[in-house]
Design goal:
four-stranded antiparallel sheet, five-stranded antiparallel sheet, about 20% helix, about 170 residues, alpha+beta
């Protein structure tokens, strides 16, 4: 009987170890999203824009992966997009992560709809610079994302201050 209990214990231990090894290791991932609309833009855009957008942002091992997809047509060609912060809804703030260097083909094509940003940013490899891609300390950027104090803004030729905007929230 004692042999059976020892075997059972060993089998249970091994099964537990295997199951732990198979678990989804997303503990260090953070998922964020923003729903972009003209109604959230400050100041209000001109030209009665009807386009909307979705931003999906994943932070894993200090690499920020960003996708911004516009549905419908913007009033004119996209010229740039960024993350701004710190700001609550209705407030404006400076650029903290610039997507433009990853958007050159989209901008050159005169895009008004579809995927306008699809890029990854290694926050530890970027130099913080007032005119660079990353404009604040990476830990501040992460703090703004975690506290809902950042937003995605898409700018167009007709709406240089921004045409659609969405506050970033945890997913």
């Amino acid at each position: 009987m004692r042999k059976l209990n020892v075997r059972s214990a060993v089998v249970l231990f091994l099964l537990s170890a295997v199951m732990a090894g198979c678990s989804d290791d997303d503990d260090d991932d953070e998922d964020y999203e923003a729903n972009l609309t003209a109604a959230q833009e400050v100041p209000a855009p001109t030209g009665s824009p009807t386009a909307t957008g979705d931003a999906d942002i994943v932070l894993e091992d200090r690499v920020l992966t960003v996708s911004v997809v516009v549905s419908g047509n913007l009033t004119s060609d996209v010229t740039m997009a960024h993350i701004h912060g710190p700001a609550d809804p209705g407030e404006i703030a400076g650029v903290i992560l610039d997507f433009v260097p990853s958007m050159t083909a989209v901008i050159a094509a005169g895009a008004r709809t579809g995927t306008i940003v699809s890029a990854s940013f290694d926050l530890d490899d970027l130099t913080v610079s007032p005119t660079g891609i990353l404009r604040v300390d990476p830990d501040l950027l992460i703090e703004y994302l975690n506290t809902g104090r950042a937003y995605v803004n898409v700018h167009t030729a007709n709406n240089t201050a921004g045409e659609i905007r969405g506050q970033i929230s945890r997913h």
